[in-house]
Amino acid sequence: MRASRLVSLLLLLQNRGRMTAAELASALEVSERTIYRDAEALSGAGIPLYADRGAGGGYRLVDGYRTRLTGLTSGEAGSLFLSGLPDAAAQLGLGAEMAAADRKLLAALPEELRERAERVRARFHLDAPGWWRSPDETPHLSAVAAAVWDQHTVEISYRRWDGADVRRRLDPLGIVLKGGSWYFLALPHPGPGRSAPPAAPSPARPRTFRVSRIRELEVREEVFERPADFDLAACWAEWSREFEQSRHRLCTRVRLSRRGLELVHALSSPITAAGADGLRPGADGWCEAELYVESVAVATTEFAAYGPEIEVLEPAELRASLADYLSAAAARYRSG
């Protein structure tokens, strides 16, 4: 642990130049006293490290000195794919590894490329969560990530979308970050109370779970065999497509004004809006469209946002629901 910290201290000074003990302590998450001891150890090992006394002083390396101690550990290498997502790396338990890998990569670059890399980092930032929402609370995320990496079976207590609590024994295959929410894909694992699969089972499909809905998690000693043909990106794309389609089963027939045709792409999902693609208003400024939505309840609040720019023709249940919804809103404002 100390050896890794000494290398990190050395790389910080190489990449940034003079730094105070307080700055080094903050970057390495240790005390200033630890920095004093580490600096003495580096000097004693022959590293040309100098301490400038007084205000504005600090530690620095002799001009021109560069270390070649830039080899990445396995954990640091594994964090590189998250180099643009520091918050995500921290949630996965890879924050320290990513910071160390970043220092080593900068140290290994020639000076002109290192300066360019620093400029890119200073000028571009990726913020994954959408507007007006906070990331999910995911206290079990790092444990799920470790189980994915080490191929350990997990047993979870999980709250489904309908509020029911269930227990599942799973073989976790991969983790996905989507719009600020974490998901993991897993295969069911035979456990107590479940029969073993038949001798020639049909291929099981991974299921998707939202990490924030895990109530309890136990990482078991069992090691599972990861399917050789599992493709995380392809599996997630297929599941996402099926999930979105499954949520839009209600076909509605509506009239849209010229303004309504513009609003459908701003206020509705792409699947709903696809029903209006290529349409043009008629002589009266309106056109008919078939729009697929999730349900009467969802469509009522969604179409209400269109105001007078939409008229629901079918189904009758949605037309009546929207009329009641808008009438109640109008009555509330008239009563004032």
TrEMBL record:
Keywords: Transcription, Transcription regulation. InterPro entries: CBASS_pafABC_assoc_protein, DeoR_HTH, HTH_11, PafC-like, WCX_dom, WH-like_DNA-bd_sf, WH_DNA-bd_sf, WYL_dom. PROSITE patterns: HTH_DEOR_2, WYL. One of its GO terms (molecular function) is DNA-binding transcription factor activity. Pfam families: HTH_11 (PF08279), WCX (PF25583), WYL (PF13280). Residues 2-57 form the HTH deoR-type domain. This is Transcriptional regulator.
